[in-house]
């Protein structure tokens, strides 16, 4: 990153862009109740049209696969049992899964209907091509920001064409369509109406978003709510803490919320970490027991749910590794054709389980900078790189091995031209920007639920190549968009 005292572009331009961002909800909420714009690039990245179209083709297939894996409950329990014992949080999730679905001898059939709103994150590696970094099946947010930053770049192109031309990676490229906000709302609304139809109801459907206490990423959430409200959906926000005393059962397993009534869709923007279930006032003997039971209660009712506990398990790093290592013929379990499996395999990067043999090999023979060590955590701060990997591996107890995996490190294309990042109203020239591309998909009961065969828009987060953490929230990431070149 190259900081320069002189303004790279007219400050009035970036000031107006920051104001546009806040005005359009591309912002985070500050502790004092004010808002700050999300960091963004001044002009979009370019991507080969063939690579982009390949991702559009393969990503709904991945979602179909994950959707079917997530409903294969015996497979989940058997394949993830060791990982669950190694990771306390996933151990809790597996206990919830047993409560909801039973075991082989005593299967249970919960009433909930799975709505899988997934973001599959990729990097376009210089040698390997585009590969999956991870699946995000719970709290897979920022879809609205993906649409808004696409609009922001079009706004720049229209208002300040010379500035846009100076900083865009390829002036001849054409913007990729991105209706992430509309398609996610479409999928949720149609799922809600299907639940209503089960009860022969035709009134206003209700959407419940489960949120974290003191959340700062609220505007992204509100953008989705506004889009749903435009479609006639009533939206409600609650924390797990609130829901523990406000949910109750109606007739025929209808999920009911105090002072609101029937709920048609439950969307979790919380629940991927222990703190979301922590309620000190309850003084529980077992941490997080009461609030985590709220998820069990929800899934015992006829309501569309994203993410179900099984979806969260199916999108874990360990399941990603299992699918990566699995022989092609084994995928027939979930009804995928040979051609579909081979297509899926083109985007799965090599992964290796952690055991004593792996640790010995890594210490003696591996190129330490060609791998990344991952645990099961969501969001930033859960990856170990380079020389730190050996140090971390040596710290692990044998009982912790199954919570971790090694993944072949991806080295994405650096942007061919410098660009400007705008963060906290300040301009920074970046010479080595690389991008992480997240494609959203929406499936309901295993079927695509958008107007685009399950595809629901994209989110691009770019960062300096030397920075390991690329999150918008927790790293050096900036919002970005895609233009296509032939």
From TrEMBL:
The protein's Enzyme Commission number: 6.3.2.3
GO MF assignments: ATP binding; glutathione binding; glutathione synthase activity; metal ion binding
Enzyme class, UniProt record, top EC level: ligase
Necessary cofactors: Mg(2+)
Pathway: Sulfur metabolism; glutathione biosynthesis; glutathione from L-cysteine and L-glutamate: step 2/2
UniProt-listed Pfam families: GSH_synth_ATP, GSH_synthase
Domain Glutathione synthase substrate-binding, chain residue ranges per copy: 206-314
Keywords: ATP-binding, Glutathione biosynthesis, Ligase, Magnesium, Metal-binding, Nucleotide-binding
Record-level GO cellular component terms: cytosol
Source species, domain of life: Bacteria
Record-stated family: Belongs to the eukaryotic GSH synthase family.
Annotated protein name in UniProt: glutathione synthase
Organism, as annotated: Shewanella hanedai (Alteromonas hanedai)
């Amino acid at each position: 990153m190259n900081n320069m005292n002189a303004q790279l572009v007219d400050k009035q331009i970036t000031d107006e862009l920051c104001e546009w961002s806040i005005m359009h909800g591309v912002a985070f909420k500050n502790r004092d109740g004010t808002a700050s714009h999300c960091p963004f690039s001044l002009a979009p990245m370019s991507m080969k049209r063939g690579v982009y179209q390949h991702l559009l083709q393969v990503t709904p297939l991945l979602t179909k696969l994950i959707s079917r894996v997530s409903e294969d409950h015996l497979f989940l329990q058997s394949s993830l049992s060791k990982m669950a014992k190694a990771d306390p949080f996933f151990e809790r999730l597996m206990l919830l899964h047993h409560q909801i679905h039973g075991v082989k001898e005593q299967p249970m059939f919960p009433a909930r209907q799975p709505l899988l709103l997934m973001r599959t994150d990729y990097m376009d590696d210089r040698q390997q091509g585009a590969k999956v970094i991870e699946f995000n099946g719970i709290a897979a947010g920022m879809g609205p920001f993906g649409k808004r930053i696409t609009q922001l770049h079009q706004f720049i192109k229209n208002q300040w064409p010379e500035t846009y031309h100076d900083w865009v990676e390829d002036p001849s490229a054409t913007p990729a369509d991105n209706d992430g906000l509309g398609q996610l709302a479409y999928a949720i609304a149609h799922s809600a109406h299907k639940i209503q139809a089960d009860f022969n109801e035709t009134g206003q459907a209700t959407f419940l978003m489960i949120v974290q206490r003191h959340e700062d990423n609220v505007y992204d959430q509100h953008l989705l709510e506004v889009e749903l409200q435009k479609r006639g959906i009533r939206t409600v926000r609650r924390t797990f803490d609130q829901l523990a005393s406000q949910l109750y059962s109606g007739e025929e397993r209808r999920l009911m919320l105090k002072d609101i009534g029937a709920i048609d869709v439950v969307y979790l923007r919380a629940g991927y970490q222990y703190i979301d279930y922590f309620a000190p006032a309850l003084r529980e003997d077992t941490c997080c027991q009461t609030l985590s039971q709220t998820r069990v209660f929800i899934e015992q009712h006829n309501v569309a749910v994203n993410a179900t506990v099984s979806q969260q398990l199916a999108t874990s790093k360990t399941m990603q590794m299992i699918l990566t290592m699995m022989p092609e013929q084994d995928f027939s379990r979930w009804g995928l054709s040979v051609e579909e499996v081979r297509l899926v395999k083109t985007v799965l990067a090599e992964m290796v389980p952690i055991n004593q043999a792996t640790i010995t090999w890594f210490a003696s023979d591996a190129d330490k900078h060609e791998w990344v060590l991952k645990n099961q955590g969501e969001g930033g701060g859960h990856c170990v790189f380079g020389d730190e990997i050996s140090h971390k591996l040596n710290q692990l107890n044998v009982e912790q091995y199954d919570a971790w995996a090694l993944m072949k490190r991806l080295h994405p294309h650096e942007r061919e031209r410098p660009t400007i990042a705008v963060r906290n109203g300040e301009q920074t020239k970046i010479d080595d920007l690389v991008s992480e591309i997240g494609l959203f998909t929406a499936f309901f009961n295993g079927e695509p639920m958008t107007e685009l065969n399950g595809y629901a828009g994209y989110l691009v987060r770019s960062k300096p190549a030397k920075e390991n953490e690329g999150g918008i929230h927790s790293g050096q990431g900036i919002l970005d968009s895609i233009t296509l070149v032939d």
